[in-house]
Design goal:
The protein contains ten helices and seven strands.
Length: 288
C-alpha cells in the first residue's frame, strides 16, 4: 500500500528537492555540516554565502516530508553558529523556505505548486529583518511574493526570493535552481571545481555500530539515573540540559572575555560547545 509521501511524489509537479544556503564561507560551514551526518556537496554561492546540496534525504525514502526534514537540518546548522541558514524546499504540492538563526524561532513561508500564497505576511518582514535586508525596497519586493499572481508558480516565487537575496551577495551557481529534483541538483554541484563532499563520520555501517557501542558504554558508566541526560538518549531531559548549558555558558564566556579570565572563558566555551552538541543531536535525530 503506497504511503502518503509516495503518493505525493506521484502527483503532477516537481520531484522533491532542497538546498541549504548558509551566510558564511564554505570553510566555516563544513565543520557544522558534518554534524548532520548526511552526504552533501558544499560549494560557494556568491559573496559570503555557501550552498549545501543534499545527495538525497529521508523524503526520497518516504520517511518524512521534505519541508520537515529541511526545517530540522536548518535548525541544527544554525544552533551555535554566528550565521543564519536558509532552507529552500519543494515537492509535488508545495514549495517554500525556512530561515533559522541561532536559538530564535525559525521563520518560513509556503506557496502551493500553482504559486498560491499559503503563509503569513509577517513571516516575510521577519525574514527581511533577520537577514538585514532593506526595510523599504526589499520588503516591497518580498511583499509582492505574498500576493496572488496567476503567472507565478511556486518555482517562480522561490526564484523571486533568491533575486532579492542577490542584493546581499547571494548568487546560486548555474543549474542549482528551485524546482529541480535532488539528483539533478547533486549532479550539477558535483561538476563544480570548488565542490567539496560532506560526509558524516558515522554514515557507514561500521561507523554506526562503533558509535552505538560508544554510546552504550557511556550510558552504562553513567548509570540509570544519569543516562537519560546524555545527548543521544532521546529523553526530553537531555534537551533541557543542553539548553541550560547554553544559557549558562554564554554569560560565563562573556564575563571571561570581558575580564580577560582564561579559566572562565574556557568554562563558558565548554558549556556552549556541549550544549550545542546536545541540541544538534536532538534536532538531527527527532524523536518519533
Amino acid at each position: 500500500m503506497p504511503t502518503e509521501a509516495t503518493s505525493r511524489t506521484a502527483r503532477t509537479g516537481p520531484a522533491p528537492g532542497a538546498l541549504l544556503l548558509c551566510r558564511a564561507e564554505p570553510e566555516s560551514v563544513a565543520p557544522a555540516a558534518r554534524l548532520l551526518r548526511e552526504r552533501m556537496l558544499l560549494t560557494r554561492a556568491g559573496q559570503g554565502w555557501s550552498v549545501l546540496v543534499p545527495e538525497g534525504g529521508p523524503w526520497q525514502r518516504g520517511e518524512e516530508p521534505v519541508d520537515r526534514v529541511m526545517t530540522g537540518w536548518a535548525g541544527a546548522l544554525a544552533v551555535g553558529a554566528p550565521w543564519p541558514v536558509l532552507a529552500l524546499w519543494w515537492d509535488a504540492d508545495r514549495g517554500g523556505y525556512t530561515l533559522a538563526s541561532g536559538f530564535r524561532r525559525p521563520v518560513g513561508y509556503i506557496w502551493l505548486t500553482n504559486g498560491t500564497p499559503a503563509g503569513e505576511d509577517e513571516a516575510m518582514r521577519t525574514f527581511a529583518a533577520r537577514l538585514g535586508l532593506d526595510p523599504v525596497l526589499d520588503v516591497q519586493s518580498l511583499d509582492r511574493l505574498t500576493k496572488p499572481d496567476p503567472a507565478s508558480d511556486a518555482r517562480a516565487r522561490l526564484r523571486g526570493l533568491l533575486a532579492v537575496l542577490t542584493r546581499v551577495g547571494l548568487t546560486l551557481p548555474a543549474g542549482l535552481a528551485p524546482g529541480e529534483p535532488a539528483d539533478r541538483l547533486h549532479e550539477v554541484a558535483r561538476d563544480r571545481a570548488d565542490a567539496h563532499p560532506i560526509e558524516g563520520a558515522a554514515r557507514t555501517v561500521e561507523g554506526e555500530a562503533r558509535t552505538e557501542a560508544v554510546h552504550s558504554e557511556l550510558a552504562a558508566a553513567a548509570g540509570p539515573r544519569l543516562a537519560p541526560w546524555l545527548p543521544w538518549s532521546g529523553d526530553p531531559r537531555a534537551r533541557a540540559l543542553a539548553l541550560a548549558q547554553m544559557a549558562a555558558g554564554l554569560p560565563l564566556a562573556a564575563w571571561g572575555l570581558r575580564h580577560r579570565s582564561g579559566g572562565w572563558l574556557t568554562a563558558g566555551a565548554l558549556l556552549l560547545a556541549h550544549g550545542a552538541l546536545g541540541l544538534s543531536y536532538d534536532l538531527t535525530h527527532p524523536r518519533d
